[in-house]
Amino acid sequence: MRTYGFTGKGKVTIQKVSVMPAWTPEDEGRLVWDDPNNILYVGGDTGWIAATGAGGTSGSSGTSGTSGAGSGTSGSSGTSGSSGTSGSSGTSGSSGTSGSSGTSGSSGTSGSSGSSGTSGSSGTSGSSGSSGTSGSSGTSGSSGTSGSSGTSGYSTNDYAEDETESTTTDTALQTKLTLNYTPTASGNYIIFFSAEVANTNAAKSTVLEFDRDGTEINVSYYSPSSANEYRVYSSFKNNALVASSSYAFNIKYARVGGVGTAMIRRARIFIMRRS
After folding, report:
1. Is residue 135 one of the residues assigned to a domain?
2. In whole angstroms, what is the distance from residue 234 CA to residue 239 CA?
3. How far is CA 213 from the centre of its chain?
4. Alpha carbon separation from 174 to 96, 120, 248, 264 (Å, rounded)
């Protein structure tokens, strides 16, 4: 895109700092990169506003293991021992024979009652069978697979700056600042840039260009109303970048026409992953 005679409202800057400064009303529109915490702040009308990158995608949950088999089968009850036969009746009949004991294991079936003798005794009850064996426990289900890790929101090498003043009388574009960048993941990235330009001759123009690998992204022309009067220019644009590919982002400037000296200072480039 081309911008001719663009006039910004207020001061717009991008600056890397190790400690965030206290906000003042003059900071409205200012862009500051908090280097230790990797956070971009924008100066609002009442304070600093954080502009963070997209977060990494969360890993998917593992699959739950299957439940173990049901409880074991209960042992069968032992058969009851049979009752002894009652003695025969008589004037003084003998007692009935005692019933045999039940087989160990299952409970014995109850014996049938003998017929009553005149003075016959009752048969002895069979002993109880032993309890059945308990069923074995079910097998535990296998653990689910762990989810994959999410993608990090920021890559390295995402900021460059040159605060010094440079000058040229050349009408061919001169490179002021270059940021060489290799993304770790493919996606959309927002590219920010800003710089202050001036000219030693009033009403003579200085051209400012921002490009990627030599292909123009933004170009602006500035003619100061008085000599050596600086003005800040800034812009940003979405770029689709491919993982492991190398890119060079450049801020360039030159003198327009045959009079005056072009001047530039406080050149900054910032890259932030969008998706």
Report:
1. no
2. 16
3. 32
4. 129, 132, 15, 11
Report CA-CA distances (Å) from 239 to 16, 53, 188.
Answer: 22, 15, 6
Answer whether residue 135 shows pLDDT above 90: no
User: For the chain, what is the domain count?
Assistant: 2
Give the CATH number, domain containing residue 207: 2.60.120.1340
pLDDT score for 257: 84
Q: Residue 270: which of 164, 165, 160 has the closest Cα?
A: 160
Question: Could you tell me where the beta strands, DSSP code E, fall in the chain?
Answer: 2-4, 14-17, 31-34, 39-43, 48-51, 79-80, 107-108, 159-162, 166-168, 174-181, 187-199, 206-212, 215-222, 231-241, 247-255, 262-273
pLDDT reading at 5 higher than 90: no
CA–CA separation, 225 and 38 (whole Å): 38
pTM of the model: 0.45
Q: In Å, how far are 41, 53, 236, 247, 256 from 243, measured between CA atoms?
A: 27, 17, 21, 11, 38
Q: Which domain holds residue 216?
A: 154-275
Are 158 and 48 contained in the same domain? no
From CA 251, how far away is CA 14, in angstroms rounded?
A: 14
State phi, psi for 212 to the nearest 5 degrees: -120, 115
The two structure tokens encoding residue 97: 């024979």
Is 113 inside a domain boundary? Answer: no
pLDDT higher than threshold 80 for residue 242:
yes
Residue 64 in domain: no
CA–CA distance, 267 with 251 (Å, rounded to integer): 7
Q: Classify residue 119: in a domain, yes or no.
A: no
pLDDT score of 182 more than 60: yes
